[in-house]
From TrEMBL:
Protein name according to UniProt: Orotidine 5'-phosphate decarboxylase
Coiled-coil segments: none
Residue numbers binding substrate: 40, 62, 153, 221, 241-242
GO biological process terms held by the UniProt record: 'de novo' pyrimidine nucleobase biosynthetic process; 'de novo' UMP biosynthetic process
NCBIfam families: pyrF
Length: 276
C-alpha cells in the first residue's frame, strides 16, 4: 500500500481503530478542512466567540484550558455544544510530562477533568513509556487518543534526532492509544523498522508553527506556510493560532476571512499532495 500521506483522509479513516483518530480523519473529510485553530486567549467570552466564528472552517479546535482566567465547568458544556454545532474535534494541548500515576490524575481530575471532554491530548515522551500507560489507563476506556511530541516548532528545540526516533518507537509499541505526533514532518519510517503487525503504519501528524504572513513571533516561534507543511513535509493537520485571530478577538469578519484563507490553503496543498 502507498505511504499514508499519499492516500485520502477517508481511506485512512477506515484503517484506524482508535475512535479519536477515526473521528478526526472522518471530520477532515466531511468538512474538507485540515485546519485546526489554537485558541490561546485568556477570557472565556473571547474563547467561545472565536470558536463560534472559526467553527465552520475547522476540523479541530486546540485548547489550553489552563490559560482561561475565568474558567468554570460550564465553559466545557459551552465548548461541547459548539463542537456539536460546528462538527469539530477537541484537542487539549496539555503536554503532560510527569510519571504515570501523576499524569493519570492530572488527566482525569483537578479543576479541568480533561479526559472527560477532550477527544485528543498530548504528552512529552521524556518520562519514557510509563507516561503512555498512565494516560491510557484513563483515556483508552473513554475512546480518547494521544499524540506524542516528537518535534517542536521552536528555534533550538531539543526534540530532534535520537529523541524523535525514541518517541516514534514508543508510539509503535502503543498503537491502540497513540494515534500520532505533534511534529514538523512525517514520522513514518523514522527510527527502527515499522511494526510489521500493522499492515500500513499510519501516524497522524499535527503541526503547529503555521503562518502565511510572518516568519516568527520574536519569542522563538517559527512559521511555515500550509503548503510547506502539508505538501512538502507531508503533515496532516495545520495548527494555526495568532495567524487567524490576531490580537483582537472582536474582529469577527477578519477572523472568519483568515480562517477561510488557511482552510483553503491547507486543503489545496492536500489535494496537490494526493494527486496521482
Ligand atoms: N505549539 C507550537 N509549537 C510546538 C508545539 C505547540 O506552537 O512545537 I508542541 C502550540 C503553541 C500554541 C500554538 O498554542 O501551538 C501555536 O500558536 P501560534 O500559531 O499563535 O504561534
Amino acid at each position: 500500500m502507498s505511504s499514508p500521506h499519499l492516500r485520502t483522509y477517508a481511506e485512512r479513516a477506515l484503517q484506524h481503530k482508535n475512535p479519536a483518530a477515526k473521528l478526526l480523519l472522518e471530520t477532515i473529510e466531511r468538512k474538507k478542512s485540515n485546519l485546526a485553530v489554537s485558541v490561546d486567549v485568556a477570557s472565556a467570552k473571547d474563547f467561545l466567540a472565536i470558536i463560534d466564528v472559526v467553527g465552520p472552517f475547522v476540523c479541530l479546535i486546540k485548547t489550553h484550558i489552563d490559560i482561561i482566567h475565568d474558567f468554570t465547568p460550564s465553559l466545557i458544556t459551552d465548548l461541547q455544544a459548539l463542537s456539536v454545532k460546528h462538527d469539530f474535534v477537541i484537542f487539549e494541548d496539555r503536554k503532560f510530562a510527569d510519571i504515570g500515576n501523576t499524569v493519570a490524575l492530572q488527566y482525569s481530575s483537578g479543576v479541568h477533568k480533561i479526559a472527560s471532554w477532550s477527544h485528543i491530548t498530548n504528552a512529552h515522551p521524556v518520562p519514557g513509556p510509563s507516561i503512555i500507560s498512565g494516560l491510557s489507563s484513563v483515556g483508552l476506556p473513554l475512546g480518547r487518543g494521544l499524540l506524542l511530541l516528537a518535534e517542536m516548532s521552536t528555534k533550538g528545540s531539543l526534540a530532534s534526532g535520537s529523541y524523535t526516533e525514541a518517541a516514534v518507537q514508543m508510539a509503535r509499541e502503543h498503537r491502540n492509544f497513540v494515534i500520532g505526533f505533534i511534529a514538523q514532518r512525517r514520522m513514518d519510517g523514522i527510527g527502527t523498522t515499522p511494526d510489521e503487525s500493522i499492515p500500513d503504519e499510519d501516524f497522524l501528524i499535527l503541526t503547529p508553527g503555521v503562518g502565511l504572513d510572518v516568519s516568527g513571533d520574536g519569542m522563538g516561534q517559527q512559521y511555515r506556510t500550509p503548503r510547506q507543511v502539508v505538501l512538502d513535509s507531508g503533515c496532516d493537520v495545520i495548527i494555526v493560532g495568532r495567524g487567524i485571530y490576531g490580537k483582537d478577538p472582536s474582529l469577527v469578519e477578519a477572523i472568519s476571512a483568515q480562517a477561510q484563507r488557511y482552510r483553503d490553503d491547507g486543503w489545496a496543498a492536500y489535494l496537490a499532495r494526493i494527486k496521482p
